[in-house]
């Protein structure tokens, strides 16, 4: 059996030497490069079976090496390595054609297993062509945890295909961001991306919304309407909360998925549609199938490729990066104290990233002097007492949403008034609401405050 050749492209001498030594001990023929230019030259002239490629390389960065090598005809299997595993980099590397994306510090056993798989796949003469060398459109997803790295890799792998994708995850985990990333990194990026929330539209209207209708198809159908399937032609159609789809519409969707054609309400004429379909759900579809609430054949049609987003409580190491992202996006020069950040990291986040984002938005309103401290952090399960200037916030997840919202509103108003030293105009400005609405809320919650 011929010996496999591996190129180690790593600018850090100690790390490069260590990898070379370990791979040689496993029987590989190993080449080494300390710069991006050297790595590109060796890749094109030596044609190694696999390349362990660092992203941050002098002269030419790793992504540029990957792009140029593949556009130059290289069929080496690239395993990209980095200690800075942001979403854009991971997605672009996978879209460009990298076999895998490895986060530092490396686990050598894992690297070795992936390396052997990559070489075996190369020997089987992969039928896929090199990916486009165009730069992808950045889609901001934040997180460096292993679970998010897996998500980025899957996005990069499926973006270049037309495969139907099912995005799963709890509410607030960022499923729509995954959809955006798939679309914007696909060949359909210049086409439309249309989104329909199946839970937000009544069943009586949803069929027409999806498939359109002919003039006279029902009362008040005064003209022909083109549905979302037709509007998304050449692009991507995203159906959110797919588990809420009524049985009658499930049958019609199944036909659309199978045949890539639809019929408008009131017509029997098929209309061909060229779309990429992505669906999402926060519910357990397997249980819905077992109960007979969701068609098994449709489930298998939608579940071609599954991307599952982890709950925020399962990737708490990403919370500091998420907080920094939300603060930077606010456009304000503001910092957060260690004690406030610690509170955020200890919270369980039943509402996931969306809850964290809303918490930071509230904290930005209540922060003083350009610093978010622990007093500005209002969490759903806080239980603090009000006495002599302090306030009470007792929000229970067991309570109804209306009660929770009222408790949060009251607490926010009281804190805004305290921050404004009782000045209602300033408090309204802090809350970004009209003063008239503030007075209505003061009466609603019977909140008394002195004015200046």
Describe the overall structure.
The chain is α/β, with parallel strands linked by helices. It has 3 domains: 5-144, 3-Layer(aba) Sandwich (Rossmann fold), CATH 3.40.50; 161-310, P-loop containing nucleotide triphosphate hydrolases (Rossmann fold, 3-Layer(aba) Sandwich); 313-444, Helicase, Ruva Protein, domain 3, CATH 1.10.8.60. It is built from 18 helices and 16 strands. It is flat and about 80 Å long. The relative contact order is 0.07.
Which helices and strands occur, and which strands form pairs?
Blueprint (H helix, E strand, L loop, with lengths): L4 E5 L3 H13 L3 E5 L2 H11 L3 E5 L7 H10 L5 E6 L4 H10 L3 E4 L4 H16 L22 H14 L5 E4 L6 H10 L8 E5 L5 H9 L16 H4 L4 E5 L6 H13 L1 E2 L8 E2 L3 E6 L3 H7 L4 H7 L2 E4 L10 H12 L4 E2 L1 H9 L5 H15 L4 E2 L10 E2 L8 E2 L6 H19 L4 H8 L3 H10 L8
Parallel strand pairs: 1-2, 1-3, 3-4, 4-5, 6-11, 6-12, 7-8, 8-11, 13-14
Antiparallel strand pairs: 9-10, 15-16
Helix pairs in contact: 2-3, 3-4, 4-6, 6-7, 10-12, 13-15, 16-17, 17-18
Compose a concise summary of this entry:
With 452 residues, this protein is an alpha/beta fold. It is built from 18 helices and 16 strands.
If you compute it from the alpha carbons, what radius of gyration comes out, rounded to the nearest whole angstrom?
27 Å
- The gross shape turns out to be flat
CATH domain class of the largest domain: Alpha Beta
CATH topology of the largest domain: Rossmann fold
Terminal Cα separation, in Å? 87 Å
Q: Indicate how many domains the architecture comprises.
A: 3
Q: Helices and strands: which structural class?
A: alpha/beta
Taken as a percent bin, the fraction of beta residues is 5-15%
Number of strands: 16
Mean pLDDT: 82
Strand order of the largest sheet: 2-1-3-4-5
Let me know the CATH homologous superfamily of the largest domain: P-loop containing nucleotide triphosphate hydrolases
Named CATH architecture of the largest domain? 3-Layer(aba) Sandwich
Please count the helical segments. Answer: 18
Question: How can the largest sheet be summarized?
Answer: 5 strands, parallel
Helix proportion of residues, in percent? 40-55%
Q: Which regions contain 5 or more consecutive residues with pLDDT less than 50? A: 125-138, 382-401
């Amino acid at each position: 059996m011929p010996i496999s050749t591996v190129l180690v492209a790593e600018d850090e001498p100690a790390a490069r030497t260590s990898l070379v030594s370990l791979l040689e001990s496993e029987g590989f023929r190993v080449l080494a490069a300390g710069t991006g230019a050297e790595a590109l030259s060796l890749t094109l002239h030596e044609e190694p079976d696999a390349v362990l490629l660092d992203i941050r390389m002098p002269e030419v960065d790793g992504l540029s090496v990957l792009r140029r090598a593949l556009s130059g005809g290289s069929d080496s299997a690239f395993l990209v390595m980095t200690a800075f595993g942001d979403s854009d980099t991971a997605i672009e590397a996978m879209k460009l054609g990298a076999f895998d994306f490895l986060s530092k510090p490396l686990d050598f056993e894992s690297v070795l297993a992936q390396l052997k798989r990559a070489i075996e796949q190369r020997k089987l003469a992969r039928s896929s062509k090199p990916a486009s060398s165009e730069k992808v459109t950045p889609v901001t997803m934040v997180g460096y945890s292993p679970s998010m790295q897996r998500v980025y890799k899957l996005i990069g792998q499926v973006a270049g295909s037309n495969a139907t994708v099912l995005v799963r995850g709890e509410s607030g985990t960022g499923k729509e961001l995954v959809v955006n990333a798939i679309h914007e990194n696909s060949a359909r990026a210049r086409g439309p991306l249309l989104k329909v929330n199946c839970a937000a539209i009544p069943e009586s209207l949803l069929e027409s919304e999806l498939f359109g209708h002919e003039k006279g198809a029902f009362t008040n159908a005064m003209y022909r309407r083109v549905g979302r399937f037709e509007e998304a032609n050449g692009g991507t159609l995203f159906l959110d909360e797919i588990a809420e789809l009524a049985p009658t519409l499930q049958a019609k969707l199944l036909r659309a998925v199978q045949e890539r054609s639809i019929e408008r309400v009131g017509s029997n004429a098929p209309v061909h549609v060229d779309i990429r379909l992505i669906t999402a759900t926060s519910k357990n579809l397997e249980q819905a199938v077992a109960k007979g609430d969701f068609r098994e054949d449709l489930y298998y049609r939608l579940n071609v490729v599954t991307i599952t987003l982890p709950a925020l409580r399962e990737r708490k190491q990403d919370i500091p990066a998420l907080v920094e992202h939300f603060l930077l996006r606010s456009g304000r020069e503001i910092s957060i104290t260690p004690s406030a950040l610690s509170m955020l990291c200890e919270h369980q986040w039943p509402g996931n990233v969306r809850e964290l984002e809303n918490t930071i938005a509230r904290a930005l309103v209540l922060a003083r002097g350009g610093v978010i401290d622990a007093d500005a952090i209002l969490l759903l399960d806080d239980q603090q007492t009000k006495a002599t200037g302090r306030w009470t916030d007792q929000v229970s997840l067991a309570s109804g949403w209306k009660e929770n919202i009222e408790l949060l509103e009251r607490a926010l108003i009281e804190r805004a008034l305290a921050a404004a030293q009782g000045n209602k105009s300033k408090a309204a400005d802090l809350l970004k609401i009209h003063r008239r609405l503030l007075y209505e809320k003061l009466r609603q919650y019977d909140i008394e405050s002195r004015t200046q």
